[in-house]
Amino acid sequence: MTNDRLEIDGYTVVDKIGEGGMATVYKGMQVSLSRPVAIKVLSKNLAQNSVLLERFNRESLIIARLNHPHIIHVIDRGLTQAGMPYFVMEFVEGTDLAARIRNGNLDFNRRLDLLIQVCKALAYAHKNGVVHRDIKPSNVLIDVEGNARVLDFGIAQFYAAQAGDVTRTQSGVIMGTLPYMSPEQLSGNDNVTALSDIYSLGAMAYELFTGRKPVGRFSLPCEINPDLPQMLEDVIMHCLAPEPARRPASAGEIKDQLLKMLQGAHLPSLQRERASQGIARIEDKFALLDIIKENSYGAVYLYEDKLTHSLLVIKRQPRASRGLTEAKLLTSLKHKNIINILGASQDERSFIIVMEYISGGCLKERFIRPFPLQDLLRIGLEISEGLAYAHRNRIIHGNLRPSNILLTESGQVKITDFGLDEHYGQEPGVQNWYRPANEPATAAGDVFAAGMMLYQMMSGMLPEWQGGRLVPHEIMGRYPWELRDLVSRMLARTPAGREASFEHIMTELEAIQARFDRTVMAKGNGDERGSVLQDGNGRGVGKAGVWRLIWIFVVLAIVSAAASAYLIQAGFVKKYAALVAAIFQKFGIALP
Fold first, then answer.
1. Phi/psi class of residue 449: alpha, beta or left (left: φ > 0; alpha: ψ in -120 to 50)?
2. Contacts with 492 (C-beta within 8 Å, 6 or more apart), sequence order
3. Which residues are within 8 A (CB) of 521 and not within 5 positions of it... i.e. 6 or more apart?
4. Which residues contact 146 (CB under 8 A, 6 or more apart)?
5. Is the pTM of this model over 0.85?
6. Tens digit of pLDDT for each residue in 351-403?
7. Which residues, listed in sequence order, are joined to residue 291 by a DSSP beta bridge?
8. Residues 6 or more apart whose Cβ sits within 8 Å of residue 12
9. Phi then psi dihedrals of residue 86, to 5 deg
10. pLDDT, tens digit, for every residue of 119-135?
C-alpha cells in the first residue's frame, strides 16, 4: 500500500514491502536519479533515545561507506521529517536464502558458492570493524543473476542498548535471531565481536546443508545428511564452537577452506577456459579455485598446489605490458614487506607472474574510517621499508596505490605489482590521484603515492590543493603535527620539493612511533607529568615538543629583553603578539 504519511526529502515512498518489530521497509524512488530504492525506517523507540540517536548519526556513516559486491549498499541515511532514523539502500530484485532453503532447489555446489560469497562479505566488513550481529538466511538476498547480497550490515548494533531481554526473539527483530545467535550474544551485546558473526555463519551453513536449525543439543550435520563431506562438517562445527577462541579466526579463513572443497566448480566453463589460456601446463600441478579479478588489462587467479595444498596467485598480463622485468628481479630478491614472487615467464601472447597468496585483502578496502595512530605508523613504516629495499635494488614501483598494498590476516604489509602498467586514470574523467600529471615513474613518484595513502589513512578522504598548496582536512588535527608535516612534504607537487627518500621517511616515522610508545608507557604507569603537552587539538606533542617549547621561550626571552622598549615605543606590540602566535601555530601548540 502507498504510505502518504512518510516523507523523506529527495525520495518518493511507493509501497510498504516489509515490517518487523524494529523497522519497516518501503519501496521508494530516488527523485534525482529516477531509480528504485529500498528505505528502511527504524522504530520510534530509537528516535526517542538520545544516546542511540547520537550513535546512529555517528556510526551509520561508516555503514554507508561499506562498498562490496556481496553487500547491499547503503546509499543514504538520515532522519525523516518525523525524526525517525532511516537507511536508503539499493533495491535488488530477488528472493532471500531462507526461501531458497525452503524450496530445496539448490544443489551442493550452489550452496557452497553462496556460502563463499557471504564469507567474502563478512571478511570485508570485519576488516573495517563492522560486525553484522544478525547473520541468518533471511538477511541474504539472492539476486536475479544468482549473486548473494547480505542485508543490514551493522544496523543491529543500534538496538543493543534498548532491546531488553536479548534472548527473546520476534519476527523482524534486527538485533539477533535466537537459532543463529552465539552463546556470548545471548549473555549480552557487549560481548559481541566478529567471532559472533562466525558462529551465526556456522548456524546458517548448518541449516543450508541439513535443512534444520542448530537448536539445543543438535545432531552432527552428517547424521542428518550422510552425503555431506567430512571436511565440510568440520568447518561447520568449528564455527559452532561455544567458545569464541575455538572458532575459525576469520571469515576469510573459512572462505579459503570452502574454495578448496569446491575446486572451481562454481566458475562458468567460459571463465575456466580463459583462465587456462597460456598456462595450461600449470594445471598438472595446480588446481584453479577462484577468479580474483578479470578485465581487459589482465586477470588474477587463485590456485591450489595439488601436492602441498597451499594457495598461490597467478597474474596474467598482455605481452606488451610492463612489469615482467621487475617480477623476474624479485624472484631472487626477498623482503618481508614485498610479495614473494615464485616465478615469471612469457609466451607469444602474454606473461604470467606466480606469487604467494595473501588472504587479508588490500589497503583500499580499509579506508571507510581514519586509522588509529599506532596502526597508521606501523603500516607507513612497513610500506617505507619495502620501497626503500626496492629502490636500493633499483626497482621503481611506478604504479603504487592502495590496491597494491596487500595485508596478511595479522596486518603485515606486502607490496605487489611492481612495474606493471598504470591503467587507473586512463579512462575519460578519471584522475590518477597517486601520481602528479605528466610525472614519469621515479622514486620520487613512489614517495608521492605513499604520501597520498598516508593522507587517506589519516582523513579517510582524498586531499585538496589550492594554489598548488595542500589543504589539510580538519580531521587530521587529531594526529601529531610532525606526521602531518611529513605527509605534506611527501605530497609536494614537484619532485624537487618532495621528501628525499624512504630512508628519511622511515627515520621520521620511527621517531614519531618512539614518542607515541613513550606516551603510552607513561600513561600505563600512571605518570603523565611532562610526558606530553597538548596541541591545539588536544593531542600530545611529546617530549620533543617540550624541548621545542623551551627553545622557543629562550629565544623569545632574549628578543623581548633586547627589543621590548623599542617595540613599545614604536607601537609594535600587536605585531609582536602576532609573531608569537604564528610561531606557536607552526608547532601546533594552542596559546592559553
1. alpha
2. 448, 498, 499
3. none
4. none
5. no
6. 899 999 999 999 999 988 889 999 999 999 999 999 999 999 999 999 999 99
7. 301
8. 28, 29, 31
9. -145, 155
10. 999 999 999 888 998 89
